[in-house]
Amino acid sequence: MSRKVDYVKDINDSKETWRLAVPIMDVWSVVNNKSIEHLEMIVMDSLGDRIQVFIRHDHLLKWKEVIKENMTCIINNGSVYNNDFQWKVCDHSKKFVFLGVTTMKAIELQNIPPKGYFFKDFGEILQGKCKTDRLEDIIGAVSEINYIQSNTPGKKVVVSVVLKDLKDNCINCNLWEIYGSKFLAYYNDPKNNGAIVILLTHAMVKDGQVSNAWSGSKLLINEDIPEIQDFMSKYSSKAPNPEKAYECSCGQKVEQPIPRYKIEIYVSNGESKYRFVFWDSECAAILGMTAEFMHNSMVENGEDDPMVYPNELEMLLNKKMAFRVKVQPTFSQASVWKFCDDEAFVKEIENDYIVEDV
């Protein structure tokens, strides 16, 4: 008589003779600070319940080439422990650990839910409604690029972008090393244009922003999968049509969009530097022209590429000013509230902050 399979929700530490009929939803390699590698994966049963699985280093050779993402299988025998992973991918209180007597057989299973993602709501991220040890799936459209750090001696690649969801919530997303490099390769490819939708799995959430995990995250950019295509379709339908009025998220009907400035500049004081964000009124005061006037001038001169920066913006460089700012450490930036470029006033401020050696 064939032994019946167990459900994930029933898994506990009372025995080691569990029998699971599951697809492998995700699998990834983890290398610790001692360069010891192990495998982790997520499996899900026919009820949609998931559990995180651990394969120790001493069993790695047996399973590394056998286990494939999206395969369906029967798994027999394994130890069960409390889910004490530093970073958890599901809510199950236990983890399933492969033993020397664990067996796994690839088999076609019926009534298994299709692979899906468990996207974290941006509103909950912004409100801090996140578990500090939980990795989340996120999806959003790139609305702007905050910062790009290239791969230079002593520094790692990092790209910081702002992601927007379908409710117009925005969060910062930091992509490190290979993830940042993958984004830049896509972004800099002239064949790619239009909206950029990012799907990031196993994202770490902290202080209202997200970043890739060092192990296990997957970055999908505008790929032909249902989740991304559905998001792109809904996001495109929300984009303003310049031929007709549209409704702002605040409820106001807008007949014609008005270009506004938002310019980020690194400001230095001695050897220290920090990113300052200049908003519309401050930029217009310095440049002596509105963003709309500058945009129209560029179009009249035959330049309609939004990624081309007008020469006039260089007027913002190499100026000595006194600023009043609001520091936003979460975003590693300061928002400019007021400024003054009067030389006498700037000199007075400088003198006030001179620290004399005693």
TrEMBL record:
What transmembrane ranges does the database entry give? none
Checking Pfam families in the record gives: DUF223
**Record-annotated Replication protein A 70 kDa DNA-binding subunit B/D first OB fold domain positions:** 6-105
- The source's superkingdom equals Eukaryota
Q: What is this protein called?
A: Replication protein A 70 kDa DNA-binding subunit B/D first OB fold domain-containing protein
